[in-house]
Amino acid sequence: MKAVVLLGFWVSPFGQRCQIALAEKGVEYEYREETVPRDKSPLLLESNPVYKKIPVLIHDGKPVCESLIIVQYIDEAWPDRAPLIPADPYARAQARFWADFVDKKVCESALNLLKLKGEAQEAAKEEFIENLRLLECELGDKKYFGGDAFGFVDIALVPLTSWFYSFGTYGGFSVEEAVPKLVAWSKLCLERESVANSLCDPLKVYEYAKKIFG
Amino acid sequence: MAETKELVLLNCWVSPYGMRCRIALAEKRVEYEHKEENVMEKSPLLLQSNPVHKKIPVLVHGGKPVCESLVIVQYVDEAWPDRAPLLPVDAYGRAQARFWADFVDKKIFECGTKLWKLKKEAQGEAKKEFTEGLKLLEDELGEKKYFGGDAFGFVDIALVPLMAWFRTYESFGSFSAETEAPKLVAWGKRCMERESVAMSLPDPAKVYELVCYIRKAFGLE
User: Could B98 and A93 be called an inter-chain contact, meaning their C-beta atoms sit closer than 8 Å?
Assistant: First the structure.
């Protein structure tokens, strides 16, 4: 086994966060595709006994779980290049806050938008759009969420953008119309090799979503 | 210098999340103003400082707000780096600490809240997840003095407010902490010997009293 192994699943935005972070740091690693939710490998079950989920980063045999924790670990384990989180404590707190917001609020409302039907779906859609608008506000006129440097919040959010087509189709709205600045930011991020190589084709994501959510 | 700026903690005495911040600030021996919020009538300062979630705790440092308790505790650790480190120095140790603190959020406090907010029939998986969570934490603690080893740290701070809430969860979840998690109960007592913890945790009987009142007021009985 190589020194750095990432257990992931091709369409998982959480796994993609880790792939982007490793690419930004120029770290060589072995990627292992897991078949989830069934047929999880013994290595996955042993490396993440608590949640039994991808992504898991295994560094010199030691597993790190939970994507935002993995990204912070990558930043701290390879501190000599491409800092992903600001140096100053207040800016770090802001970065953690917004990454947590993406996890708690954006992901949850997005999942509900895909899973639910009727009025409940409509409510989820409104909440989802509101959450994206809050992020757009936070981005403001900055190039990236971190300012001039691509960083933690960008990495937390950008994998969800290949799901924008799916969210829009399921919810019957245009993400670009709702949050044009955020869509522009996502296109800027896609110009980065780390992002372009890690994200999936939105149409393939939609095909996957149809299989899972109907 | 961090010390010369004004420091205010917007809090509510019963919140386990607020307790975490108080413990962290006490460990660092940082002076601050404690502002008790009435969560039914949130102050303009709270709404302005946490417009996204509108919740306590919020730490306002030199006018700049920090929200979400585990983010606040990490901020406190990094803003006062010269004393009482709350997270390990090495990257792997830090990742483990963050993992378990996040686990506490998901499996203990989120599930615990369901135990007292929902009627028994609606509690569903919450009790099972909660008691399983306690066992996993006990396994992780093992024979160590604290979750961080010899040094009291991030995971201890994340979890120890449970000591003020255990009685409430036990009552509405119908289980006994001493039976389900004796090692954690012992760890909790060790933590309570620390001044920072003893002064930050309220009397569990008062927490229970308040929750009973809330349940009656909201027709949850």
Answer: no
